[in-house]
Amino acid sequence: MSSEKTEVDFDVADINKDYERLYGFHTNTDYLKDSKKGVSPDIIREISKIKNEPEWMLEFRLNSLDIFNSMPDPTWMDGSVFDDINYEDLYYYASAGDKKYNDWDDVPEDIKDTFERLGVPEAERKFLAGVSAQFESEVVYHHIQEELEKKGVIFLDFDTGIQKHGDLIRKYIAKLVPQGDNKFAALNSACWSGGSFVYIPPGVKVEIPLQAYFRINAESIGQFERTIIIADKGASVHYIEGCTAPTYSKTAFHTGVIELFAEEDAYLRYTTIQNWSTNVLNLVTQRAIAKKNATVEWMDGNLGAKTTMKYPAVYLAEPGARGRVVSIGYANKGQRQDAGAKMIHAAPHTTSSITAKSISHNGGRSSYRGLIKVNKGASHVKTDVDCDALLLDDFSESDTYPTIDVRERKDVSVMHEATVGKVSDETIYYLKSRGIKEEDALLMVVNGFIQEFTKELPMEYAVELNRLIALEMEGSIG
């Protein structure tokens, strides 16, 4: 469903060199004076009371906290990843205001200035069908076009969704990501705040994207948004998520849970451009189910963050279901991008594809970690995986950890291809001979390498992604 777009060129010299000015700024944090660090049953009850939640949600939270406390940190990955997490030194809930707004002029000036500088209202005015902006633990602004509301489209922050459509959310929550799925899913289930609830009625096509933007502003904050998107029979929707945070000396923590439900003949695309600062641990669980002839697509862009662990999954539940993941990861100095995808073929006549691109620079480490599983009885399956890694120097790293589990022998096609390469001196020399500066030549190569991802984005997001890549690469020569 991507549209053709003209190629956008960037000269590194024209890119603003001050990342802090663009994304690393922060507003005052006086609101933290009323917040408490650490997580306990009392804090969970306080969060639930602030949100005026039904009793079933409080029970859901407390049960999740018990599960979280009973689970150790994961052991399958380098344990040093979790050394920076001091669970008792984090704020699990912080609100910079006491209400949310659907009129941008009413948003408090300091918060409004944050999102204006990030370009969120401008993007809404230009081409978004709806937008939700979350600051710390709470959504502060939310808006949806009236014509979509008239068609029965529900696009709410998750808290309001609980108040207005609690029975519907209760039907779907934790069905794809159970509370005990992993330690961080349990923590999210206990502490969640904000996020989005989207329901697209049967046959409704949302032609313009919906967007949510998540901003961590303060130091030692945990952000735990929860998102559920339901595309009913024959419906279509594209949801875009963006994230940023300023840089602090102490670790911040982001652990979201996203559950997508594509009913028969539905189309659901989820696009993420995450640009966390390098003190953020980004540990996310994302899972989808595709019913008969439905399609789920994840477009997953990961920059920034000290560590990212994210593996979007699609459960292909019924015949004709299709799953697709296209992802990029950029690991710079001191960063670990551990990302990938999972495709579970549980029905015959299902197809899937995974395209993963990673760039490692200045000693960064990128990893692809994926799973292809074909269950017994899932015949006539076709799936392919393509992992490409680009190293920009001699001391960065790239790893691939594929798992392929095929239980059905009848007409199953599984393809896996992985390549690792460096930017060749010959390529750079050729571009320089055409009058292109060396740093611009390297940027051209990188932009060409990730083109399969950027061509899937709306123009405004493709432009922004290329600018972010250019910022990451500054100083890459010499």
So what's the overall shape?
Answer: globular
Radius of gyration: 22 Å
What's the total count of β strands? 24
The helical percent reads 10-25%
Question: Strand pairing plus helix content: what structural class?
Answer: alpha/beta
User: What percentage of amino acids are in beta strands?
Assistant: 25-35%
- Biggest beta sheet summary: 14 strands, mixed
Mean pLDDT: 81
Spatial gap, N to C terminus:
41 Å
- Count the DSSP helices: 12
Low-pLDDT stretches are: 1-33, 124-130, 135-142, 245-249
List the SSEs and their pairings.
Blueprint: H1 19-24, H2 41-50, H3 55-70, H4 109-118, H5 120-127, E1 130-135, E2 138-144, H6 146-150, E3 154-157, H7 158-172, H8 183-191, E4 196-200, E5 210-215, E6 222-223, E7 226-231, E8 236-244, E9 252-254, E10 257-262, E11 267-276, E12 280-283, E13 285-290, E14 295-304, E15 307-310, E16 313-316, E17 322-331, E18 336-339, E19 342-345, E20 351-360, E21 365-374, E22 381-391, E23 397-406, E24 412-422, H9 425-433, H10 438-449, H11 451-454, H12 459-473
Parallel strand pairs: 1-5, 4-7, 5-8, 6-9, 7-10, 8-11, 9-12, 10-13, 11-14, 12-15, 13-16, 14-17, 15-18, 16-19, 17-20, 18-21, 19-21, 20-22, 21-23, 22-24
Antiparallel strand pairs: 1-2, 3-4
Which keywords apply here?
14-stranded mixed beta sheet, ten-stranded mixed beta sheet, alpha/beta, 478 residues, single chain, disordered N terminus
Structure description:
- This protein has helices at residues 19-24, 41-50, 55-70, 109-118, 120-127, 146-150, 158-172, 183-191, 425-433, 438-449, 451-454, 459-473; strands at residues 130-135, 138-144, 154-157, 196-200, 210-215, 222-223, 226-231, 236-244, 252-254, 257-262, 267-276, 280-283, 285-290, 295-304, 307-310, 313-316, 322-331, 336-339, 342-345, 351-360, 365-374, 381-391, 397-406, 412-422.
- It has 478 residues and is α/β, with parallel strands linked by helices.
- It has a domain at 35-219 and 233-257.
- Strands 3, 4, 6, 7, 9, 10, 12, 13, 15, 16, 18, 19, 21 and 23 form a 14-stranded mixed beta sheet that branches. The chain has a 10-stranded mixed beta sheet with strand order 2-1-5-8-11-14-17-20-22-24.
- α2 (41-50) runs antiparallel to α3 (55-70), α3 runs antiparallel to α8 (183-191) and α9 packs across α10.
- Residues 1-33, 124-130, 135-142 and 245-249 have low confidence and may be disordered.
